[in-house]
Every structure is written in C-alpha cells, then in structure tokens.
Write a structure and sequence with these properties.
heterodimer; A: alpha+beta; 5 helices; globular; B: alpha+beta; 12-stranded mixed β-sheet; 6-stranded mixed β-barrel; elongated
C-alpha cells in the first residue's frame, strides 16, 4: 500500500461511520454505490474514496443494529442491497454528532487564532 | 447494548463464514455492475467501463478482506488456517507425529492417573460433615521411644468430662475377627465395630431409619442394641422393616434400633453392624490403650490448643485412675486430624510417586521439544522461503507453536483416556492397603489437572522454542543461501540440543536413583529377620466356636473357659494329625499375628523395680506350640505345655528384646517375675523367645509378653482363636477341606457339622500373605518407581539416540570429507561417542546434585539405606553413562560406515 492511501484511511477512520449514517438519514434508503457516489459529490472530489472501503463500515453499522440492508431492484432492474437507517441508528447519529461537535468546539478553543 | 449485539454477531460469523462471504461477493459484484452501468452511460466502451469500475472501487480482495475482519474476528481465521496447515503437516509426517503424541500420552496419562490417586486420598476431604474438626486421640511417650499410643476407656472418661477443647469425645474399637450373627435367617459372619454412643453422630451418620445410640444404650446392663449398615439392612431384611427385630450377635440378642444411610462407611473398614461399647468407669485402668479415640473440636479451636488441653488433663487421668507414667516417659498428647490419621504415611509415598511421574512427564516433554526443534532444523529451508516470501517471523513462530499446541492437546486427550482405563490397573497393583481406595476416581479436578499439565507442557515448549529461535533467528535467515546445507551443525542449534540432552540425562539419573534406593530398601527389608520362617508354609485361620457348644447350662451367655480351651485343644490335636501338617498352635482372638499391625498394647511392671511401667508392650495369650509353629527360636528356658494352662500356672514367655533390655541377657530373665499392676499378681518368666515383627518389617519388633490362655474363673472363655498351621501343603487344593474333615471327626460335646454350617471359619490367609502385605508399601513404591525409572531411561535413550542421529545426519558432509581425507572409522566413532559422553558427564553431575537434594524427601520411605547411598549412585551413574555411550555409538557407527563418495555426491 502506498503511503497516500494510508493517509486517506486515517482521515476517514473516525468519521466514515458518521458520514454513512448522515447520508442515509438525509437521503433515505440507499445502496453502497449510491452512498459512495453521494460522498464523492458532497466532498467535491476533495478526497477520493476507494468505494470498496465502505464495506467494513457498512457491516460494522449493520452489526450494531444501526442500519439494515435489504435486497431490492434498482430502477434499471439491477439487484442491489439497499441500506436503511434504523431508529437505533438515528439515536446513535444524534449522539455521535453531538460528540463530534463538542470535540470540534474543544479543538477550536485550543487552536491558536489564525490571523 | 449494541456492543454486545455486535460481539455476538461477530461470534456467529466465525461459523457462518461461507454464507456471509457469498452475500458479500454478491453485494460487491452488484456494486461493480452499477458502477459499470454508470460509466457506460457516460459513454465508455463496455471493456473500458469495467476497468473504470474496478478503478473506482479499489482493490476488491482488499475490501473484502477488510470487511471480513470487521465482520468476524480475524485471528480466528488465522488460527483456523494455522491449524489446517499444521494438521496437514503432521499427517504428512506420521512417524514424528506418532512418536511425539505417544510420548505425551504416556507422560500426561501417567501424571493424570497418579494425580487422581492423590486427589482421592490426599486432597478430597473425608466424607463426613465438618470433617475438618474431627481429630484422632493419639498420644506419645518419646521417653519410651513410643510415637503412637491410642486411647482407652479411662482416657475417654477423663477427656469427655474435663475437656475444654472438645465438643464431644468418642471411643471405638474393632476386632479383625467377625462376629457371628444368628437369630433370624442363616447364621453368618459379620464385621462389627464397637462404639460409644457419640461415635456415629460425630461422623454425621444420622440413621435413615430408627434412631442413633443414646447415652442410655451406652450404659452397661442396658438392653443390648445394634445399628446396622444400609447394605446389611438390604441384604438381611430386604430393605424393609427390621427395626425392633432381634439379631443374636455372638450369642447376645440385640435389638435393631437403626439403619445407617447408604453413604456411610467408616473409612475402608467393612463394618456392617455397630453396637455400644458400654465402657465401665470402675473397670477402666490407667495406663492402658486398648481402644481408639476420636473427638470433634469446638469451633475455632486449633490442634495446638487441643494438645494443650489434653496436656492439662493428663494429671487428672493419674488422680482418677491411679496408675502413672514415669517422668522419663514424657507421656503427652500428639493429636492429629482424622484426615491425617487416615492418610498416614501414604502421603509421603504418593507425593514421591507424583514427583517421580512429574519428572517423567518433563523428560517426555523435553523429548518432544527436541523433536520439534529438530524438525524446525530440517524445515529450515522451507521456513526461509516463507520468510523471504513475506511471512513474518511471528507467523513462523506461530506455526511451530500451533504444532506443539495440537500435539499437546491430542496427547492430553488421549492421556486422559489412558488414565481412565489404566486407573483400575494402577489401583489393583497398589491396592494392598491404600486408604480410601473406593473413592478414587476421575473427577473434574483430575480433568482440570490434566488440562493444567497440558498447558504446562505447552508453556515448556514455548520456552524451549523461544530459546531456540532466540539463538537461531539470524542463522535461519541465512539458510536460503546455503540451501539448507552446512558443514557442521551450527553452534547455536547445538547449544539448545545439548541443553536438552543434558536435561534428559540428569532427569533420568534422578529417577533411577530413586528406584535404586527403593530396590536397596526392598532388599534390606527382605533380609530383616521377621521372627518366623517360611511364611508361605503357614496357614492362618480364625475359628469362632458357637456359644452353645461351650457354655454351661446355668450361664448360657458366657463361654466356660475350660470347655472352650479343651475344645480348641482337641481341634489343635486333630489338625496336627492331618497328613503333611508339621505343627499347630493358636492364640486367643488374633493375638500375636506377626506383621498385622493389630496388636494389644499394654503396660507391664517388673517385680522389685521402682514402679516403672514398661509401656507399649505387646500382650498376647497363646497356646502351646504357638512359637514352635512360627519357628520363632526359643532362646532360653522352655515354652508352654497344655498342663500349664489347665493348671492355671502363672508363667509367661517374653521376647528377647524385653529380656535384654531389663536383665541383660535371655538367661538372666528366667525366673524373674512381671505383673500388670504394682500389687501383683505376678507371672514368672519361664522362657525367652526371639523377637517377632508385629508392625511391619521396617518398624522395630515390639517387646512381647506371652501369657498362657487364661483359664481362671474370673474370665470367660475366649471363643475366637487364630490357628496357625505349618505344613508343606499350605495353598494346595484339598488342604483346607482336609482340615474341615479332621475337625468334623471330633467327637465330644461339639457337633462339628455345625462348625461348618456356621461358616465361622473366617479370615483364612497364610503368613505369606501377611508378609507380602507388610512389604506392600515398599514394593508398590518400588514397582511404580522402577516402572517410571525404566520409562525415563528409555525415553532419555530415545531422546539421546535421536539427538545424536540428527547431529550425525547434519554433519554428513563433514563426515564424508573426513573419511575422504583418510580418517579412520574408529576415530570417527570415538569422535561422536566422546561428544555424547561429554554431554552425559555434565548431565550426570547436575543429576547427582538434584538427586542428592530430591532423595532427601524419600527418607521416610527408606530402610537401612541413606538417601546418599554411594553404591546406588555408582550403579546409576554407570547405567546412565553406559546407556548414553550405546545410544551415541549406534548412530556413530552408521556414520563411520558411510561411503564418502556417495555422501559428497548427494550433497
């Protein structure tokens, strides 16, 4: 693995779960590709994601009972596994977001003011 | 909550691997399809779209692997792989696997079996409620060199009435001869125990039917009662009723008042009926020790406090019962927990054996470890390739570790099986008188122990392998260049192998030293003069004469002494006349039986001396021809005649050690008088006989005073007699039948048909049996030690042979070159043997050190030989060095016969 990939993974590590949850919360039921596409779109191609790296996050979230996957047909009649956020997932999202915001606020207070 | 959920799901996925993988593959390919669709929609060609989709997705395998790690526990997978690989490797190499597993099975199996014995005898508590407060009343008189004196009615009364440390005190006694039960049903011989009323409740044996003994039952003159065991109740009464019925026990009608629970046994003593001892205060004498005492400590009272309490009460004994010990006797308490009483000396023996077998296990482990390291050596090339291809060192170490874990687990499981099946054999080999033998079995503790032993073995391998890798790590890395060949064994490899050889030699030496010392002990014991000759030719049998045949009409419940002895005399004469019988004698009860450890201790007083009581003297009542039949030598004076007995003459025979101790020689004792209380009456010494060992060959023979059968009207006749019959026909078929027939020929006032139907011919054994049983502890220890010692030597030999063979094969090239350069085969052989001997030498030195230290623990097992016996050490060292020389010579000879051309060509 190149060091670039490593850096990217590090960047995403803490946030990927949160991003996936947020995406599903705002956009409703989605398959993995759609989630990845949405991420790229939102990120303005600022960071490039290997779409495959979503899968560990998905299985993690599903095992926690925060999302739920069901096989459905796409509009082009392809099979795809659609993920939906659950009630527990929504609760977790609220909690995690709050935590993130607290952390971000804390970091901002610590950071020296840039002119 | 979600953490638990996730954990459970991950656990679940350890098993449901293929389904989850299938699902994942489907999802990923769907993802790729969607991506492809998208790229095609953007105008790419299908083949370009597929590539673009792949690019956008990233590494498919990597993604899936990451998902798998999230989905389940990755290490489980890795372990699974390792196990699969290792099992395959082990199956491919059946020779190695078989030998390694066999050694482990042997080691672990033996250890487990031994531990289950230890567990049953030493570790598990006695099966009585609150057993940790039960003690046996034991005393000592170091001034008289007596380490063990038990209890008596006098002790019982005083301790019961005055003790502050005891909750309750009980007295019990047993007789090796069975009681005869008549009354309801067929007459039968039944083992009995005579107990005071506290006894059963102290052991927590509450009757399941009826009641226990009350204080009133324990008063002389009260209605005779009896409590029966569950087994006897089932057998005799069919398991229903029985209460209130009458059993005639030895002619006394006793009312059945209770049935004991099924679990209750008094250790291994097969008592089936229990009746009250009814001690009588006015008849109690002091000092005397004709019973066994037991007590339950009050809560929180220590053994020391109880000892102190007894010490306080000893003066009370003196004031209440008159007699006294001299100051010099230093009579005092030596209480011990009932558990320790039961286990006795066996504790030492068992731990010794356990340690022995533990050492054996260690040797087996060392062997397997050296096999494994040798295998690593030969696989060096493969391992180097793996390392070069990116397998981490940890991975390689893990493979080797997996191998040892699998070997140990298989070995452990089979070992447990071996223990399970060999335990009965082990027990029957050592059963002679192991306490609590019925309770020995494989329980969870034993399984746990087997597991612990296995884990220990794994830890040991880990240690050895870790050492090995620490030494050879960089060497291994270089193995690829040399193609796995080398001129000589690398020094680092050798170091660990040498260490293992030295360890094996020293361990084997320790074990063999132990066996050697036991062999010496056994031989010394065999040379002890037991006080009798040709035990195999002496038949011993007990005969209880029915009361009806020897009681007077006026007093039907008391045997008339003269009639009793005349009948026994007649039986003696009849049996003397049986073809092949040389001599017949008998004693009252089971008095005077050598080596049975069941004697009647008592005190005697010598006339004219300051009243010093000679304690711990064996008192026995005997018939004429008693010592003649044992062929115990008569050293001075004469022995008894029947006339002496019928005339009621006050004469005794004493043993040589008593005569020498008191009067300096056997002759000097003749005509002196001894008594049992300072006021007389006195008995005149008419003869001195040789010493007879009563409590085992390793114990000194007790001082003995033999009285003639007592025919005074003050004492009832003694219906139970132990006959001893010397004949070359002992043990041959038909002999016992001839004795029966001869007894039946008796005419007189006894119907001898009755003797037979009563079945009172009990306890038939030979003096040889007693002799063997006395040697049993030593011979059991010896047998087991010899077996383990031999196994140890064998394993060490195999290990050594393997190590030298391996080193020879590693140095094949060097040997080839040496041969090609003209080295003589003899020189080469010597070269290897010398090397082996040097290692053995180091092992011997270390081993002697350990043996000298460890055999100190054996001291209580040894007799007539010190733990540092030079002969034993010399023999063992010779054996180990010899074995080592042979096991290095064989591979060396093979090496020296190699054809140098062939060798160099192959290499």
């Amino acid at each position: 693995m190149s060091s670039g990939t490593k850096k990217r993974v590090e960047l995403l590590q803490g946030t990927l779960d949160l991003i996936v949850l947020r995406t599903l919360a705002t956009m409703g039921s989605q398959h993995a590709y759609a989630i990845a596409a949405r991420l790229e779109q939102v990120a303005d191609n600022e960071f490039v994601l290997n779409q495959g790296t979503l899968y560990p996050a998905l299985v993690r979230l599903e095992q926690r009972g925060w999302i739920k996957g069901i096989w459905q047909k796409t509009e082009n009649n392809r099979d795809a596994k659609y993920y939906t956020i659950t009630k527990a997932g929504l609760r977790a999202l609220t909690q995690q977001t709050e935590r993130w915001q607290r952390l971000v606020g804390f970091l901002e207070k610590l950071s020296p003011k840039e002119s | 909550m979600w953490r638990l959920r996730r954990f459970l799901l991950r656990m679940k996925n350890i098993v449901g691997r293929s389904r989850a993988d299938h699902e994942l593959t489907r999802e990923v390919s769907s993802h790729l399809t969607l991506l492809e669709d998208e790229f095609q929609r953007q105008g790419l060609q299908p083949s370009e779209a597929r590539l673009a989709a792949r690019r956008a997705f990233g590494g498919v395998e990597q993604a899936m692997e990451l998902q798998r790690e999230e989905r389940s526990f990755a290490f489980v997978d890795r372990i699974r792989q390792d196990v699969r690989y290792t099992v395959r490797a082990l199956i491919k190499n059946p020779g190695f696997t078989l030998i390694a597993v066999l050694m482990l099975v042997l080691g672990i199996g033996a250890t487990t079996a031994m531990f289950s014995v230890i567990n049953g005898v030493l570790i598990r508590p006695l099966p009585y409620p609150g057993q940790d407060r039960l003690i046996e009343l034991v005393h000592e008189a170091p001034g008289l060199r007596i380490s063990e004196l038990f209890a008596s009615p006098a002790i019982y009364f005083v301790y019961r009435d005055h003790s502050q440390a005891f909750e309750s005190v009980a007295l019990w006694d047993w007789d090796a001869s069975p009681s005869t039960v008549t009354g309801s049903g067929e007459p039968e011989a039944v083992q009995s125990l005579v107990v005071t009323h506290e006894f059963l409740s102290m052991l927590g044996a509450a009757p399941i039917l009826g009641r226990g003994f009350s204080e009133a039952d324990d008063v002389a003159g009260s209605t005779p009662t009896v409590i029966i065991s569950y087994g006897y109740w089932r057998r005799h009464f069919g398991g229903t009723g029985g209460l209130g019925q009458t059993l005639v026990v030895d002619g006394i009608p006793r009312q059945v008042i209770g049935v004991l629970p099924q679990w209750f046994r008094f250790f291994d003593y097969p008592a089936e009926i229990f009746f009250p001892l009814q001690p009588v205060r006015s008849a109690a004498r002091w000092p005397s020790f004709d019973g066994r005492g037991m007590a339950r400590l009050k809560r929180g009272v220590t053994l020391e406090a109880a000892n102190a309490d007894v010490r306080r009460m000893i003066p009370i004994l003196h004031t209440e019962f008159g007699g006294n010990f001299s100051e010099d006797a230093r009579f005092g308490p030596r209480l011990r927990f009932l558990k320790d009483s039961v286990v006795g000396k066996f504790g030492d023996t068992l731990w010794l054996l356990m340690a022995t077998i533990g050492l054996l296990l260690l040797i087996a482990c060392v062997n397997v470890a050296s096999l494994i390291t040798a295998r690593v050596q030969t696989r060096r090339h493969e391992l180097a390739v793996r390392a070069a291809l990116g397998a981490g060192w940890s991975r390689i170490v893990r493979l080797v570790l997996t191998e040892s874990v699998i070997l140990v687990l298989v070995g452990g499981a089979c070992g447990l099986g071996l223990a399970y099946f060999s335990l009965p054999l082990l027990l029957s080999a050592s059963a002679a008188d192991l306490p609590q033998i019925q309770t020995i079995k494989i329980d969870f503790r034993v399984v746990l122990a087997a597991l612990a032993v296995s884990v220990l073995a794994i830890l040991m391998f880990t240690l050895i392998l870790a050492l090995h890798f620490a030494f050879t790590r960089h060497e291994l890395a270089g193995a690829l260049h040399s193609g796995g060949r080398s001129m000589t064994g690398r020094r680092e490899d050798n170091r660990i192998r040498h260490f293992l050889i030295v360890a094996e030699v020293s361990l084997a030496l320790v074990l063999l030293t132990g066996s050697g010392l036991m062999i010496r002990t056994f031989r010394t014991l065999q040379h002890v003069d037991p006080g009798f000759r040709d035990p195999g030719r002496v038949q011993i049998l007990q005969l209880t004469i029915p009361l009806a045949d020897i009681s007077d009409a006026a007093q039907s419940d008391v045997p008339n002494p003269e009639r009793t002895f005349r009948l026994q005399n007649a039986i003696q004469d009849q049996w003397t006349a049986v073809a092949g019988v040389e001599s017949v004698g008998f004693s009252a009860f089971n008095d005077g039986l050598p080596l049975d450890g069941d004697g009647r201790g008592g005190g005697i007083i010598i006339e004219g001396r300051t009243p010093v009581t000679e304690m711990g003297v064996e008192i026995q009542f005997i018939s004429p021809k008693f010592f003649e039949t044992f062929q115990t030598p008569l050293l001075a004076g004469r022995s008894f005649e029947w006339k002496d007995i019928y005339d009621g003459r006050a004469i005794v025979l004493i043993s040589e050690n008593l005569a020498r101790g008191e009067w300096g020689s056997a002759e000097a004792a003749l005509g002196k008088r001894i008594g049992r209380s300072p006021s007389g009456p006195w008995w005149e010494v008419v003869g001195v006989v040789g010493n007879v060992h009563h409590n085992g060959l390793s114990e000194p023979a007790p001082k003995t005073v033999s009285f003639p059968l007592p025919i005074t009207s003050a004492q009832p006749g003694i219906r139970t007699a132990t006959f001893i019959i010397r004949s070359a026909r002992v043990g041959t078929p038909g002999f016992l039948e001839d004795l029966q027939k001869a007894a039946r020929k008796l005419n007189g006032n006894v119907a001898l048909g009755k003797l037979q139907t009563l079945g009172v011919l009990g306890n038939v054994q030979t003096l040889g049996d007693l002799y063997r049983r006395s040697m049993a502890r030593t011979s059991t220890t010896l047998t087991l030690l010899a077996i383990t010692g031999t196994m140890a030597l064998l394993l060490a030999l195999i290990g050594m042979y393997g190590a030298v063979s391996f080193s020879v094969s590693q140095r094949r090239r060097e040997v080839g070159i040496r041969l090609a350069l003209g080295a003589r085969p003899a020189e080469l052989r010597w070269f290897f043997v010398r090397h082996g001997l040097a290692l053995a030498g180091i092992g011997v030195v270390i081993g002697i050190g350990f043996a000298a230290w460890l055999t100190q623990l054996m001291t209580s097992q040894l007799f007539g030989v010190t733990p540092l016996d030079p002969t034993t050490y010399a023999a063992v060292v010779l054996a180990v060095v010899g074995a080592n020389a042979v096991s290095s010579y064989l591979p060396a000879r093979r090496a020296s016969r190699m054809d140098p051309v062939e060798v160099l060509k192959i290499e």
